[in-house]
Automatic annotation (TrEMBL):
Domain of life: Eukaryota
Family to which the UniProt record says this protein belongs: Belongs to the proteasome subunit S14 family.
Keyword annotations of the record: Proteasome
Acyltransferase is among the record's keywords: no
Domain PCI: 85-275
Keyword Thylakoid: no
Protein name, entry field: PCI domain-containing protein
């Protein structure tokens, strides 16, 4: 009797998950973000009632179907976190989804979106400039994954970034292989832009506005000027050029801490002579 009751409870949880997942897909198709968020919260709570999921992986009669449903729920969770631009939720959902891709290998059929989502996780690390973690995740992928267009796209992005071939990055922004990559490509562009801005300050005293705009990957003067106004307040625009003088780091000799350190060394030398 107890087994039958437990079995019925698991069956009801699975049926409820299937129903709510259908509503989630419907809400996502309509672009109803609020309904998606509410349904995902309910579904994640519901998944805690299903013992066949990681880390326990109990062999229940409906284990295969339950694992497939749970995987689809987390794929939706990744998409929602992208839509609402929640980077913390994106990282959390990517990690949970990756567990279903790796740990359930051979237990359930592979998801058709597995490599696009694994590529998305790589792109997330690249956009956040977490290069060491990027390479760690890349090494964990199976060899066949490296030939997938989504994975190859991100690997080539990283190569372009390391080589400083920002023109290739600009072209790549216009040719994303999967719709879910758009938000992270914008984030990557911001990361690269900040790197270029920092290097420009070190390398130049000033640049013509048109050259600076091209280097910073802006397509319009307005976006370029807004970036300088909001993100680089120490830059100055004069005589049709962007001047970096105010943003350059001050010499260490002018720092009060350096003067105090120098003075302390002087006192130490004098004390040594006295003793």
């Amino acid at each position: 009797m107890k087994r039958d009751a437990a079995s019925q409870s698991m069956d009801s949880a699975l049926e409820e998950a299937i129903c709510k997942l259908a509503w989630l897909n419907f809400a996502r198709a309509r672009g109803d973000v609020d309904s998606c968020a509410a349904l995902l919260s309910e579904l994640k709570v519901l998944l805690t009632r299903i013992p066949s999921l990681p880390p326990s992986f109990e062999k229940t009669p409906n284990a295969v179907e339950e694992l497939k449903i749970a995987r689809a729920i987390y794929e939706n969770a990744v998409i929602l976190s992208l839509k609402i631009k929640d980077r913390e939720a994106l990282e959390r959902n990517c990690c949970q989804l990756k567990e279903f891709y790796i740990d359930t290998c051979g237990m359930i059929p592979p998801s058709p979106d597995e490599y696009p989502f694994l590529g998305l996780n790589l792109l997330r690390l690249l956009a956040e400039n977490r290069i060491a973690e990027f390479h760690t995740e890349l090494e964990l992928l199976p060899l066949e994954a490296l030939n997938h267009p989504c994975i190859k796209y991100v690997v080539e992005l990283e190569l372009s970034l390391m080589e400083g071939a920002y023109n290739r990055l600009i072209n790549a922004l216009q040719a994303v292989p999967h719709e879910t990559y758009v938000y992270l490509m914008d984030l990557l562009a911001e990361t690269v832009r900040d790197e270029v801005a920092e290097c420009s300050v070190e390398a130049y005293d000033y640049l013509p506005i048109s050259v600076a705009k091209k280097m910073l990957m802006f397509t319009s003067d307005q976006e370029h000027l807004e970036y300088i106004s909001e993100e680089q307040s120490e830059w100055e625009i004069k005589n049709c050029s962007v001047h970096f003088d105010m943003a350059k780091p001050k010499p260490h000799m002018n720092l009060p801490s350096f003067k105090l350190f120098k003075q302390a060394l002087s006192y130490a030398r004098e004390l040594e002579q006295i003793l």
